[in-house]
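Data availability excerpt. The first of two example chains:
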Amino acid sequence: MRRTRLASEGKALLFTLPAMIPLSLFWFYPLGYVIYLSFTEWDFMSPVKTFVGLDNYRYLFENPEFYQTLRVTLLFCVGSVLPVMAAGLGLALLLSGKRKGGAIYRTLIFSPWVTPTVAVSIVWSWIYEPDVGLANNALHAFGLSGIRWLEDPNWALVSVLLVTVWKSAGWSMIFYLVAIGNVPPDYLEAAELDGASSWDKFRHVTLPLISPTTFFLFVVLTISSLQAYDQINVLTQGGPAGSTRTMLYFYYLSAFDAFQIGEASAVAILLIVGCVALSLLSFGIGRRTVHYS
């Protein structure tokens, strides 16, 4: 029996080998190398990598800029994930079912997602232009004073978040449209026969049954928000005064601006640990809150 089991396991490993080779080459090895670099001091050009132990991590945790970056990252995560999910759900509820022109509206709302983030960010940089931009012209039309959208530390992060939510809401909407369409009509009819209002049907029937989609979107959007870079680089370059500098942009500045590869690698490892921790936390919460029909 043991010999048969070992033979079966050997065959299974043999079948997974084609997948493990690229995975090891392009994921495990780079990850291990980055972990090694996080314990060294290297400038990208010197042939010598000086081992410094935990100095890079110690420097980060003693650096006030790192805590500001961590705060901005958390604000960006909360300020993008929840609005994107809420906007996607609201749009899906408006456009679900057979509505006249629904396909056109869904296509228009989804189109920003398939547009490159750099192109979208360039267009929004024109919209945010303080003197002739569309955003301030709209404010002037209502008798309001203009805003230095990308130059004011109080508004810069909000401006980047608006771009992020606008671009991603259509993607979230598509998933919710499918989830809402898969809600069994019998459940809704039974709730209606029991005297449930539209809000009651949504709260007690639709919302629990689409919770797997909500959970999926939360995890994916959270990881995506922690990796946001393009819109920040185009719109604000992490400024003004570090008000839009997230962890990934901090990594970029450390690696390709200051050429502190050890410090940048430490930032990358902390970012990976953060993604893993948030994912595990989400799965733990999901076990108690997600309902699978």
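And the second chain:
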Amino acid sequence: MSHPDLNLLITLDALLDEGSVARAARRLRLSPSAMSRALARLRHTTGDPLLVRAGRGLVPTPRALELRGTVHGLVQDVEAVLRPATQPDLARLTRTFTLRASDGFVENFGSRLLARTAREAPGVRLRFVQKTDKDSAPLRDGDVDLETGVVGDAASPELRTRALFEDRFVGVVRKGHPLAVGKVTLARYAKARHIQVSRRNRDSGPVDAALAAAGRERSIATSVSGFSAALALARGSDLIATVPERHTGSLRTGMHTFTLPFAMPPFTVSMLWHPRMDADAAHRWLRGCLLDAVQHDTAR
């Protein structure tokens, strides 16, 4: 089955609007003979003469009058599709964005992001879902619009990324804990009991690797899947939670935070999205809002 030449829609729209081969040709910057050939093709394709001679001019047939409104609407729709994306009308924008992030990220930056989006685009809804792994499938499949986290080896190379901030691990204990007084040495840190944080239920992680490089090993009293839970346990016990500093700023209120007595490299937290959303104007606006929310926190 042959496919119709969709360019003929633009030609037909001009002919029906102008009612003249010569004027339609000038409008589309074609020669009169080229427009006449196009009209002949349209007549053959539609099986209707469309425009017929009446005195010195042309008049539309009933079929042409029937098509005129539909054809004009189709041409306008095509032009809108092919027009470069512009800034959306935020006041009228109605859309739900799904963001996948850790609990700590949402607790520290979520309220500021929500305030910004509500002020600029009240019809936009943000849906936060918990990040339980580094699988890129939700972004690729369109289940998630934007994600935050450390870009690891498991991330799909096709994803777009933008760095948000640099973070580092710190130690946290309750007020009144023995480590809240005096300098926290490597020996004191290693001798205490610790909370292991692992989303994948692993027995060791980057903290343990850094301790091993320093010739030490820590005693793990319990294991949890997130930093929020680790801080909640540390707040009510004598256990140490080792957590990212920026990610847990609001969660550590009222607790004692100290610099780790051994070397651990900082890490970069980024936002990630799929390339198909790269040019989407509303998605680009959301990425800007998230970046501003994080930078505002940095400037405080």
